[in-house]
Amino acid sequence: MADKKNASENPLKINRRHFFSQLSVGIGSLALGSLLIPDLFKGNSPTLGAKPLGIPHFAPKAKRIIYLFQAGAPSQLETFDYKPTLIKRMGEDLPDSIRNGQRLTGMTSGQEKFPLMPSAAKFKQYGQSGAWISDFFPHMGKIADELCIINSMNTDAINHDPAITFFQTGTQQSGRPSMGSWLSYGLGNENQNLPSFVVLTSRGKGNSQGLYSKLWSSGFLDSKHQGVLMRSGKEPVLYLNDPDGLSRSDKRHLLDHVSSLNKMHHVETGDDEIESRIAQYEMAYRMQMSVPDVMDIKKEPESITKLYGEDVQVAGTFAANALRARRLAENGVRFIQLYHQGWDQHGNLPSEMAGQAKDVDQASAALILDLKQRGMLDDTLVIWGGEFGRTNFCQGKFDPKTFGRDHHPRAFSIWMAGGGIKPGITYGQTDEFGYNVVKNPVHMHDFHATLMHTMGIDHEQLTYKYQGRRFRLTDIAGNVINDILS
Amino acid sequence: MKQKVIIVLILIGLTSLIYATKKGLFGKANDSYSKLELPEVVDYNFHIKPILSDNCYTCHGPDANKRKAGLQLDIKEGLFGELPENPGKFSVVPNNTSKSTIYKHITSDNPDEIMPPPDSKLQLNSYEKKLIKKWISQGAPYEKHWAFIPPEKDELPQNNFKAWEQNEIDAFVLQKIEDNGLEPSKKAERNTLIRRISLDLTGLPPKPEHLEKLTNDLSNESIEKVIDEFFALPSYGERMAQSWLDVARYADSHGYQDDSYRTMWPWRDWVIHAFNKNLPYDDFLTWQLAGDLLPEATKEQILATGFNRNHPITQEGGVIQEEYRSYYVVDRTNTLGKGILGLTLECAKCHDHKYDALSQKNYFELYAFFNQVNEVGLRMDAVQAKNQKYFADAPFLKLSDELIENDLPFVKKRKGDTINVMIMNDSAPKATYVLNRGNYDDPTDEVKPNTPNVIYPFSEKLPKNRLGLANWVTDDNNPLTARVFVNRIWGLLFGEGLVVTAEDFGVQGSLPSHPELLDWLAKDFMENDWDIQYLLKKIMLSATYQQSSEATPKLKKADPENKLLARASRFRMSGEMIRDYVLTTSGLLNPEIGGPSVKPYQPPGLWEETNAGGGRGILTKYVQDEGDKLYRRSLYTLWKRTLPPPNMTIFDAPNRDLCEVRRQKTNTPLQALALQNDEQMLEAARVLAQQMVDKNQDSTQMLNDVFQRILVRKPDENELQTLKQYYLDATNIFKSNTENAEKLLAQGNYEKQNTDPVKTAALMLTAQVIYNLDETITKE
């Protein structure tokens, strides 16, 4: 019977390490482990396509995730958290009883007053569910009954870097694996031609904050689990394109000779890593076909491109990336991470947010509709949202046309839709000021636990032992939010 | 009737199946652990403690807050003393398994009694249970954690095949090989060996003159001469510096949100210089930890302290500076742990360590050493960043022309530039507190600078500052420092340390494969004044190091991971080494040493697509360098933390946000793509072809030469035939399409020569074939 505690870890790698750590070749005449149980040592790491960890732990509802990350943090008060009280109390100072010791960033901690500022957008109720959605997002309104809006998200960080790192890796400081890497590690790769974790980036005109490759890093996991940045333009994956003057058949010819020389050397050295190298070259050769193919949206019919809106024709836009995300999903990519930059509205919020919303509204809704009509929404989890919320009080000059909002960790809104999530509900509630969560809080760790649950993973069991400790995405916390599961 | 019989039979079958399952019969039958042979003598450190720490310490370990039933199994008193909640009973009673409650609990069938409890999701296997039983019945001998016992030199083992041994290292290695009924491998071939030594000592392939020096005489006298020649090359310092940059989390940018430029490269120049003058490791550490506090500190010693300012520093608008200042001190403390002491100190930041005997108080006592700097943090807005202010946070050393000329001639600064390098000082004395859960805004008890007693007590005579700390770190009685370094050097040469977890010598780290050898090397290193070149030479002159790396079927079967070292290791080079290798063999390498970092080829648009918006500093747009700056060694490539050079990260380079002591050696399709299509790779093949095609008329000779130049050996007959066939095919392809030949030859900025395009393009592709061989990027 397999050692249970190792079942949740890479059985080859960890057992081997673990095994030696216990048996050791260190002392006395103890025979080497591999002599005794050769099977334990056979072969290299699990190949792509294998599911190494005895996962899923239970039947998954979602097979893949498309995460539409809105980097910079869109305001909850201009998206999904409708607070009419702010209209009535416009300009009044935020009561201390509500702020309740919340620390402020250096950008507003010097402000003498914290005047409440109502939403720059009007709100309407949509669909049978009657979900409140701001006028910035009319297309999302039309699919309200597919969405599970969460208005009670909260985080610990008040600055972009730690907050976004927390979202992606489960902790505020760098060094841990990204969500997509955890899933790749836990579930393996579904296909032989594409990576299991893909990243697409776009940028709006709003005030933006940087992105960093650590957000899609595999941390201490094997780096084959790291996210692969697929860029718009002629070379979607770094170094994918062969040089001018080298035809596809010339390339094949070249690789065949590389292979045959490698095989000769394999015989000479006996090192099986060479076989693995040959296999990786073949995978690379296949990717040269499969990646441009999956990224090419020209093959999409007009009915589809229309759905995503005009921007879809412009490479590098959120709309184009959303459509590519669907194509990647169809081709077995497990975790597709989009980032749209430009949501950091410290000033000029009304105009900047209108622009940002226009970038993403139609295409986000289109993605849901598109997945649905293909029967893929049932097993694809789509998530939309940023890294924290924004203050209900004004940052900078008190002017309804040009005001800004500072960072706010205590409450913000995201939505989830599809695989395993209850459609047409709004979950969680903030106080009348939109400042504190008063009902059904969802902390970051809960969010991660829930996300993993939809993929059939018990977040407490997917662990990796590093520096002597079993790490997991949810650190030492996290509860699955059962109320939002379908 | 027949049906009834069948049903009854099925029922009987099912019942016995259920019974068998319940009794664990199937479990036993399939339990691979049950077949394992127990060691003759069970050792506490090597056999028992790993089981206890992995399974029991979470609740019965060093962390006082999480301890259950008052039971502490990581200390002797807890293991053998009376149970706090169960008077008259004992966890372990030597020689008496049935009175040892620990054994009762780990073998219990009762879910309320079994340990570890079911909800921990941990479980001992049958082998582990038997080990504990045997240990108790052998009298349950106990020892301090192995890594905290100062290393001593054991007597050398006497082996049968003594003739093979070249020095002490071999005696220890051979013992294990012989114990396992194996034999060591033959000596590596001359060219393989010289290539190996060259890569290990300079990070570059050997030059033809080195090959000539080492004739067929592979005696240690002649190998030693070659080693000395490599030590004398400036590229030695570059190679060693490269390995220190990951530990020191060196970068040319501040990291975090805006990630703008910083000028720490003079510190990097110092590291190269220090290795080249073979500064002993104890001084190397002392200067970096406390150079500023040395009596009459030189400017060089002060520059060395930049080590502790290499951590990321935020410039994000609106941060609470104290929160980040605390992160910086934490980073220094963790780097001391991981990079120098081989301990996961960071686990004790928020609570007592779960596995090692390190309390949260210990952690903040160490933190206190680094908490006296008058750093202010970078306060910068977009305009300031654009104006290129704030490359350095105080305190910093201003490098003027005069200072460079008089004190720091090895810093390759352009005349007229003023460069600020961040350094350490202790000019902002602060009280240090244990921070509850590690939170900067939740101080509890005050602590004074101190080191953990469990490692080695801090002498009363030492000053309670970083200088005292440096003395403690480099004291010959410190059980960790030398072991950790020796192990890392071993890992540099063999691909893996004797302790695989080079970052963790604590109880959860892996155990040394050759403990006596590790200790002998550590002790020997200290006895020889922490002389790094002495250590390298010692290892390289061993028969162990000089073996062939061929994995014979017998060795592969017996020891697939080469734990016994009955052959040399064969492993992929780092990204830096691969690029430098290609630059050297193609003749492109610009050997200039030091100076500001450079920007070689990088796929366009990468920085621009992810930056925080234009205008925030000079690193938002990648402006590629020109001329011979493109061909500097890879350690001079500008390191931007949020988007490090992709042709390095694809080969497992860390992003340098944190101290890292070992890299993975993965094998991925993205690496295959980079090796085929990185402009630098293509250009190198082109330039090499350009040179060779001119020199030779005879294609056999030409292919021989190209192969020899890249792989440092002659091709065998089959290899040569394959290359000739390929070259011929490629020539024919380009004969019918010279346009394609011209297009291919347009790769890279390096000057084109007026050679025959068809032949040159064909030879370029042939060189590309060789550059893409596993052997080329592997140290054999």
Summarize the structure.
The complex is a heterodimer of chains A (486) and B (780). By secondary structure, chain A is of the alpha/beta class. Chain A has 14 helices and 17 strands.
Features:
heterodimer; A: 486 residues; alpha/beta; Alkaline Phosphatase, subunit A; 2 domains; nine-stranded mixed sheet; two-stranded antiparallel sheet; 17 strands; globular; B: 780 residues; mainly alpha; 5 domains; 8 strands; 45% helix; 4% strand
Task: Draw up the topology in text.
The complex is a heterodimer of chains A (486) and B (780).
Chain A: H1 4-7, H2 11-23, H3 33-36, E1 64-71, H4 85-88, H5 96-99, E2 123-126, E3 131-134, H6 138-142, E4 147-154, H7 160-169, H8 179-187, E5 197-203, E6 228-229, H9 248-269, H10 273-295, H11 302-308, H12 318-330, E7 335-341, H13 349-373, E8 380-385, E9 389-390, E10 407-408, E11 412-418, E12 425-427, E13 429-430, E14 437-439, E15 442-443, H14 444-454, E16 464-466, E17 469-471
Parallel strand pairs in A: 1-7, 1-8, 4-12, 4-15, 5-6, 5-7
Antiparallel strand pairs in A: 2-3, 4-11, 8-11, 9-10, 13-14, 16-17
Helix pairs in contact in A: 9-10, 12-13
Chain B: H1 2-23, H2 25-30, H3 44-55, H4 57-60, H5 76-80, E1 82-83, E2 86-90, H6 101-106, H7 126-137, H8 168-179, H9 190-202, H10 208-213, H11 220-232, H12 234-247, H13 265-276, H14 281-290, H15 299-304, H16 321-341, H17 360-369, H18 382-386, E3 396-399, H19 401-406, E4 419-422, E5 432-435, E6 443-447, H20 466-473, H21 481-494, H22 515-527, H23 532-540, H24 543-546, H25 553-558, E7 571-572, H26 575-586, H27 606-610, H28 646-649, H29 669-677, H30 679-695, H31 699-711, H32 717-735, H33 738-744, H34 757-771, E8 778-779
Antiparallel strand pairs in B: 1-2, 3-4, 5-6, 7-8
Helix pairs in contact in B: 3-7, 9-11, 12-13, 14-20, 16-17, 21-22, 26-30, 29-30, 30-34, 31-32, 31-34, 32-34, 33-34
